[in-house]
């Protein structure tokens, strides 16, 4: 009898249903500020970003030589990036691309990851830009395009100190005309940070630069001229500048 008294509770315990797994909560928004730009002198297209999230460059920046670039942030749907590049290859304008991709978004998690909070920007090889900031992106959120002659860029951000962040980014890019695009992108990030940046602080930064021509990377059959990521650093923009200023970061294939 004693053995049965021990065995029966054990069997009951084995047959009891496992506790329900709680539904996953929403991901943290990619609070960030980014810039997309085209250098009218070299034809290079570049993008840079900084955020108080780990490895922000992993999903925000998208670029392809001879095609253009995109940034997808805030309440992110990473598929916006590849979709934008595909439509740029078809010759669609940045404005039409942004509007189409957002309109076609099925908004699968409207309660906690609504497309109304997405932030999305696109630039093409001619320097045409267009950006969208959803009404539910966490404040301060917004975007601004360059207006100076021969300066083609769009700066955008969310959970920022104020609108001065994107204003300072554009000003930083415009006042460094004549410098390599990587340094101009850095000037934009530094300007944004000096204006307050991400309200939560700093953690990661990234940059990508592609040429207007294919095959201009530092190895054969590589279309990327420069790709850098600082994934976890108390001063990611400072570290990004150190990497950009290394001689290896300025290598190009002959004729590029």
Mind explaining what this structure looks like?
By secondary structure, the chain is of the alpha+beta class. The chain has one domain: Aminohydrolase, N-terminal nucleophile (Ntn) domain (Glutamine Phosphoribosylpyrophosphate, subunit 1, domain 1, 4-Layer Sandwich), CATH 3.60.20.10. It is built from 6 helices and 10 strands, in the order αββββααββββααββα. Helix 2 packs across helix 3 (94-104). 45% of the residues are buried.
Compose a concise summary of this entry.
By secondary structure, the chain is of the alpha+beta class. Helices cover 27% and strands 25% of the residues.
Instruction: Just name the CATH architecture.
Output: 4-Layer Sandwich
**What is the CATH homology-level superfamily?**
Aminohydrolase, N-terminal nucleophile (Ntn) domain
Distance between the termini: 87 Å
In percent, how much strand structure appears in the residues? 15-25%
- Give, in order, the helices and strands: HEEEEHHEEEEHHEEH
């Amino acid at each position: 009898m004693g053995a049965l008294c021990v065995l029966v509770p054990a069997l009951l315990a084995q047959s009891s249903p496992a506790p329900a797994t709680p539904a996953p909560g929403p991901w943290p928004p990619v609070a960030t500020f980014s810039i997309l730009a085209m250098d009218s002198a070299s034809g290079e297209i570049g993008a840079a970003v900084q955020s108080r999230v780990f490895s922000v460059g992993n999903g925000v920046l998208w670029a392809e030589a001879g095609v253009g670039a995109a940034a997808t942030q805030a309440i992110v749907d990473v598929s916006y990036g590849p979709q934008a590049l595909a439509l740029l290859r078809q010759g669609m304008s940045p404005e039409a691309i942004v509007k189409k991709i957002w309109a076609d978004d099925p908004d699968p998690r409207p309660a906690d990851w609504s497309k109304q909070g997405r932030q999305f920007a696109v630039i093409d090889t001619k320097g045409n830009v267009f950006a969208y900031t959803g009404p539910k992106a966490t404040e301060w959120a917004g975007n601004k395009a360059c207006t100076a002659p021969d300066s083609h860029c769009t700066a955008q951000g969310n959970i920022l100190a104020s609108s001065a962040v994107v204003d300072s980014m554009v000003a930083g890019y415009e006042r460094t005309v004549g410098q390599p695009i990587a340094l101009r992108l850095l000037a934009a990030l530094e300007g944004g940070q000096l204006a307050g940046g991400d309200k939560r602080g700093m953690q990661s930064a990234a940059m990508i630069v592609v040429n207007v021509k294919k095959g201009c990377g530092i190895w054969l059959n590589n279309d990327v001229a420069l790709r850098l990521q600082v994934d976890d650093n108390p001063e990611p923009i400072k570290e990004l500048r150190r990497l950009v200023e290394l001689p290896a970061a300025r290598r190009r294939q002959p004729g590029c």
